[in-house]
Specification:
This protein folds into 2 domains: 24-184, Tetracycline Repressor, domain 2 (Orthogonal Bundle); 186-324. The chain has 17 helices and no strands. The protein has helices spanning 3-6, 21-32, 34-52, 58-82, 84-87, 105-127, 129-149, 156-174, 177-182, 187-213, 215-221, 226-229, 234-255, 261-284, 287-311, 315-331, 334-341. Helix 3 (34-52) runs antiparallel to helix 10 and helix 10 (187-213) packs antiparallel against helix 13 (234-255). The longest helix has 27 residues, at 187-213.
Length: 343
């Protein structure tokens, strides 16, 4: 029995302490990871905005975000069920409810299943079945593919990054990307696809910084991170730098649908700082440079999303809305306008 196991098993003849409601809620929060869910929801909303601009109803947006939040929470719980044995071996995760023994796996499985079903139903009702199916595919990729691969191959990061970029697709599909594309409006789909690609590439330096900081814990737990297979960090640094540099041309593609030069320069500035932090880590490969890269990654993502929302609405979508307004005004009779004015 390990030390972690011993600390969670009550001594003989002593009854375990009954947890308070606040402790139970804290355990649920640790399993569902709401802070990560908030970042996921931000990418979903950005994908919807880039696809449809202001043509999204408030109830639709709220429903899609709520449904996605529940599915994301379900995937976090399922991930921790599968990783409870390895989590028990790492100091940074040993205190989680499942490895610490505060929550039974069966109870967590029920919670994960309920969250998945309710979240999928809310998504189907608000964003349509294609969005719900996309969310389910994301759940399966994260839980059934990425999580087991962490014990088998360093390629797990490349697979996990796909799951990390999929929320953008959920948002785009919920905003009607397939129908818009079929109707000949490719601007929104191109913008969302470019943003999803940016998000995919962004994850490599971000995760490699984490993998470097916790490389010894990952090694002790038997997880095949690139920093475990290559303790020098050269491969992790090279992969990170290549991904960060690739974000520059993708940022240009993101700016094309809106025709916004300001968006391109804003993206280039944010990504340029990210490249600098990644290059610093590649040269130094120490904990300080990894922490700086981790902080830079969060700032870069926030800056990229803010610029995309503020400046990245597709020009075609905006023009079509203006045309719709013009046609509506032209077809309204003078009597109707006079009646409206007398109200």
């Amino acid at each position: 029995m390990s030390v972690a196991d011993a600390s969670t098993v009550p001594a003989a003849g002593i009854q375990p302490v009954v947890r308070s409601g606040s402790t139970l809620l804290g355990d649920v929060a640790m399993m569902t990871r709401p802070r990560i869910a908030l970042m996921v929801l931000a990418t979903v909303a950005t994908g919807m905005w880039l696809t449809a601009g202001g043509g999204i109803g408030g109830w639709t947006l709220a429903g899609v975000l709520a449904g996605t939040a529940l599915v994301a929470a379900s995937s976090s719980v399922a991930n921790q069920i599968l990783e409870r044995d390895t989590d028990r071996l790492m100091p940074r995760t040993a205190g989680r409810p499942l490895p610490a023994g505060r929550v039974e796996p069966a109870v967590a499985a029920i919670l994960s299943g309920v969250l998945l079903m309710v979240g999928g139903g809310v998504l189907a009702a608000s964003g349509g079945w294609p969005a719900a199916v996309t969310a389910l595919a994301t759940w399966l990729l994260y839980v059934a593919v990425y999580t087991p691969l962490k014990r088998r191959t360093p390629l797990n990061t490349a697979i996990g990054a796909i799951a990390g970029a999929m929320p953008v697709v959920i948002g785009a599909v919920a905003a009607g990307s397939p129908a818009r594309l079929a109707a000949g409006d490719a601007a929104g789909t191109l913008a969302a696809a470019a943003f999803a690609t940016l998000l995919y590439l962004w994850q490599f330096p971000h995760f490699m910084a984490i993998a470097w900081l916790y490389r010894r814990q990952y090694a002790d737990a038997g997880l095949r991170m690139l920093t475990v297979d290559d303790p020098s960090g050269l491969r992790a640094a090279g992969q990170s730098l290549a991904a960060a540099l690739a974000m520059l041309p993708v940022g240009l593609v993101l700016a094309v649908p809106s025709g916004s030069v300001r968006l391109f320069f804003a993206e280039a500035a944010a990504v340029g700082l990210y490249v600098a932090a990644t290059a610093h880590f590649a040269v130094r490969r120490d904990d300080l440079s990894a922490r700086r890269l981790l902080l830079a990654s969060l700032g870069t993502l926030l800056a990229v999303m803010a610029a995309a929302v503020a400046l990245g609405r597709p020009a075609v979508a905006a023009d079509s809305r203006r045309a719709t307004v013009a046609v509506t005004i032209d077809t309204v009779s003078p009597d109707t306008l006079a009646d409206f004015g007398n109200r």
